[in-house]
C-alpha cells in the first residue's frame, strides 16, 4: 500500500505522528500525505504496506527483480561474478578467488599460489584452481594417516620403481628414487649396467687347483680335472686330489704299476714292456717300418707266428704307419 492509496481509499489505518514515528513497524517512517494526514511508509530500499499487523517492510532484492525481468536462461552477472544488492540498486562484483584488473573487463582467476596468498603447511605445495587453490603433497609424497604431513614414498620398498634386476639396485631419495649399477657384480658403461667378469678382472676368490667360471652377476669356482671339491654350504673351500690308482683299479694295463700324481696319474710299465706315453705299455719289438706320431708297434700272436703292426694311440684313428689323427 502506498501513500496515494492511503489518501484516496477509506479504511481504518492508524495515523502516525512525530512522537510515535512508526516505532511498531520496523524499517518504516511517518510519511506526510497532506496537511492533515500522516501514515507509516517503508523506508527507501524496502517494500511493504507498513501497516501494523500487515506485511512487514522487507528489503528489496534488486538482484531477484533484475533476474525476473530477463529471458529464461539469462543471468544478471557473468559466470565469474555475483550479484550484490545496494540500497537503491544492484551491482556485479567478482566472486571470491577472482579479480577485475581494469574497469569494464571480465573477472579473472586469482593465482593465490603465485602471489603468496596460498596458505599451505610445511611439506605441502600450493596448487591453483579456478577461483581458489588447494594444498597437495608433491610428487613422490603421500599424506600421512592423520592428514597433517606429506611423507616420502619409498619407491624401492614398495616396488614402485623401474630399476632393472639384477643389474641395478634402487636407491630411495626424498620424493623420488634412482637406479644404480648393482656393483661389484655389475659395472656402469655407456651402454648401461653390464656384467662384471670377475674372472677376467681377477676379482674372484677360488681355491688352489680350481678355475673361475663367470656367471651373470657373479662367478663360481670349479675344481680342475683330477680334483674333487670340498664344499661348505654352497662354497668350494678347497679342491682335493683324486687318487685314481685307488679309485680306478683298471686305470693302467696289467703290465704297469699305477702311480698317483697331483691332479693326475701315470702308469709305470713293467719289463719286458716299455713305456709309451704316460699310461700305455708296449712290448719292445720292432715293426717293418717306423710308426707315425701318436702310434706304437703292437705285437699280435697268430698260429703262424707273431705279427707286428703300427697301431694308433687311444683317442687317435688312422693308419699307424702313415698318420694318426
Automatic annotation (TrEMBL):
<feature type="domain" description="EGF-like">
    <location>
        <begin position="241"/>
        <end position="282"/>
    </location>
</feature>
<dbReference type="Pfam" id="PF07645">
    <property type="entry name" value="EGF_CA"/>
</dbReference>
<keyword id="KW-0325">Glycoprotein</keyword>
<keyword id="KW-0732">Signal</keyword>
<dbReference type="InterPro" id="IPR009030">
    <property type="entry name" value="Growth_fac_rcpt_cys_sf"/>
</dbReference>
<dbReference type="InterPro" id="IPR000152">
    <property type="entry name" value="EGF-type_Asp/Asn_hydroxyl_site"/>
</dbReference>
<dbReference type="GO" id="GO:0005509">
    <property type="term" value="F:calcium ion binding"/>
</dbReference>
<dbReference type="GO" id="GO:0008201">
    <property type="term" value="F:heparin binding"/>
</dbReference>
<keyword id="KW-0245">EGF-like domain</keyword>
<feature type="domain" description="EGF-like">
    <location>
        <begin position="109"/>
        <end position="151"/>
    </location>
</feature>
<dbReference type="InterPro" id="IPR018097">
    <property type="entry name" value="EGF_Ca-bd_CS"/>
</dbReference>
<dbReference type="GO" id="GO:0005615">
    <property type="term" value="C:extracellular space"/>
</dbReference>
<dbReference type="InterPro" id="IPR000742">
    <property type="entry name" value="EGF"/>
</dbReference>
<dbReference type="InterPro" id="IPR051586">
    <property type="entry name" value="PKC-binding_NELL"/>
</dbReference>
<dbReference type="InterPro" id="IPR049883">
    <property type="entry name" value="NOTCH1_EGF-like"/>
</dbReference>
<protein>
    <submittedName>
        <fullName>Dumpy</fullName>
    </submittedName>
</protein>
<dbReference type="InterPro" id="IPR001881">
    <property type="entry name" value="EGF-like_Ca-bd_dom"/>
</dbReference>
<keyword id="KW-0677">Repeat</keyword>
<feature type="domain" description="EGF-like">
    <location>
        <begin position="195"/>
        <end position="230"/>
    </location>
</feature>
<keyword id="KW-1015">Disulfide bond</keyword>
